[in-house]
Amino acid sequence: MTAMMAILFYILLRGASKLRLSLLIGQPSPLKGEYGFLPGLVNTLYIVVLTLLAAVPVGIGAAVYLNEYVGRSGRPSRLVRLINLMVEALAGIPSIVYGLFGAVFFGEALRLGYSILTGSLTLSLMALPIIIRASQESLAAVPQCLREGALGCGASQWQMIWSVVLPCAKRGLLSSVLLAVGRIMGESAALLFTAGAAVNLPKNWLTHPLASGASLTVQMYLGVSSGKYIDEAFAAALALAAVLLGIYLLAGILGREDK
Amino acid sequence: MVKNILRSRGNLSRAERSRKFWDSFMYWCFSLCGLSAIAAVCGIAAYMVLAGTPAINEIGLFHFLLGSRWEPTAPQPAFGVLPMILTSVAGTALSVLASVLVGTLTAVFLEELAPNRLRQAAQATAALMAGLPSVVYGLVGATLLVPLVGKAENALFRGSSSHIFTGGANLLSASILLTVMILPTAIQVGGISLRAVPRELREASLALGADRTETAFKVLIPAARPGIVTGAVLGTGRAMGEAMAVMMVSGNAVNFPLPFHSVRFLTTGIVTEMGYSSGLHRKALFSIGLALFVWILATDLILEALVQREGGGQSA
Fold it and tell me: Is the pLDDT of residue A1 over 90?
């Protein structure tokens, strides 16, 4: 316990001394001897948005399927148990294996190469189990009588889901998305071989997803392993930890109010 | 009844038909989403096998898994991953044992003895620490832990001529860092399973004259054992699969695992060489990935079986 506190204080101590706004929104420039995390920040934003675009509809859809269509009739069928097992398996696969898979499947088989899109698609697989699990919980917390009421008024199952179940669970669903955002922002191993390690600002905002780009975490890793930017990395770590703390707190509050 | 039959399909109003259409259309959409998890796992498995087996065929399974030399770029390349496997096993085992021990005791303290406010603060800290990115852990490990372990190493091996000094980047550092990384999960899972112990057990033990410590060790921990085991398996998965943090503290030389040896894990083996590998070397890295994948999947399935058995036992 004290060890955990000690680590947090250490990050705070070493990070705070270097933390400047110019570091976070500045560009690295060897000529001027400056370093900045703006490229990593921009790439991380791209990755988060693209990953969510792919993972949120599918994840929530899967949760709806598991909870509304097949989960209601007594004992779970063999298919449902298989799906649940696969979701557990997805959650357990290490990020480095995701990275390898993303590199051969999205990168080579689909010819996307080292690009932010490859990284995002890879991460969307990683985010899937998080979104499915948390969404399922919040859907299960919607009172059964609301469903019966809607069906009793003559709504079809889809109308019932769209107009009653999803709105009732929206805080919980949002919380599940936030959990996924936290996971995406902290990921590094899966991105190294998929999104690549280019520390550049986008040349063209529209085609940037097809370019290689290091996320904030990957940029931190590169900075540290080059041995030059350790204090800068601490500052970025502090900022990242603060943002993650905010995200997890918000997710916790939203998730709790549902119940 | 007769009326329903008479109102045959053709008489359905337009709105009714579109309602029916959307209903079944969305059903299929949701089913597809539900099947996506199965598709994802099967796809990953298929591609890992496709990418991982050629090198194993070429090297030979025996030489690959049990070979002790990893010299991928030598004129006579050797691809034996035994040192990395043993390192991963040793590092994981050490850190899981330590974190389960410390985590369970911490959970007992927090649940049974600590004042409310301390418990809440500790739980919030654990939640944050569980979500902290591994790069951040690696950063702290590299700047805080490695120099400390390096000092200990210098003191221990002073004057030794055969020891290769690692400066603190060794198996011990990696194990300590992994312990800290999976500790939050161990505390959380331990807390959950302790809270699930029926109140009567605790009260019965106290009523029989046992004090709180005795109750904790003789009643609560045995009763919470399934949860603690689950936590250990979860920790094993996380520790086995951790790459970036370990990479920054373990030294990365291929050696057999001794506490003060610079070592390379299965995961870090992939990260270290992926950037510049080609040909058989690159394929061999995918084989390492396959080995890791199979291992983790097996652990998961065992856990699932354990949980289902425990769950079945409780509901029966």
Answer: no
